[in-house]
Amino acid sequence: MKLTKERIVAAGMAVFAEVGYQNLSMRQVADRLDTHAGSLYYHVRGKEELLALMADRVCRQAHDAGTEALAALPPAATWQDRVEAQATALRRGIAQHPGGAQLLAESPGVLSTGALSLMERLLRTLLDAGLPADRCGIAADTLLSHVTGFVLQEQNQPAAPPAVTAEQYADLLARFPLVMGASVQHLGQDEKFVRSVRLLCAGFAAPA
């Protein structure tokens, strides 16, 4: 099969899912494609560019998913609903790729049309809602950073919480009554994410 940039990016995503951000190498990607590493450089200049292309692919897929989510909203949907739809689609899009959040968080600082598309649409949503223009940029950046960080935490959390004996719990409760007590609700990840986005929206709309 002909070697193309798209095939190289797909192979890079597969290798990345297995070995992570730091350990990915062009040689591993070449092995996945059953070719020589030198052949890759006709299409991709090196690991940095490959990582940027991989991050861009994740963003473009998330943008497309966001387009579908927005189209499914009822006509009476509020701007908060539109922000939530975009954030939820982005979270799901990143989470589909093992290590996807780390990829976006650590990818090289280069221009990405996928990331720019996500930011452009979110900015338009906030501006159309009537939010002051001088706060829309930081609001959009904060929301996108929150989504990436949320998924990063999800993807790095252990499969099961640490075991705690009754004696240990009683000691922790005495030392940290707010954290361990009823003050902190123990919600599922989906509910926690939705509530966090709504809190951010409330802050975006609050008077200066």
UniProtKB/TrEMBL annotation:
Gene3D superfamilies: Homeodomain-like, Tetracycline Repressor, domain 2. Residues 2-62 form the HTH tetR-type domain. Residues 25-44 bind DNA. Pfam families: TetR_C_1 (PF02909), TetR_N (PF00440). The keyword Transcription applies. It comes from the Bacteria. Keywords: DNA-binding, Transcription, Transcription regulation. Transmembrane segments: none annotated. This is TetR/AcrR family transcriptional regulator. It comes from Streptomyces racemochromogenes.
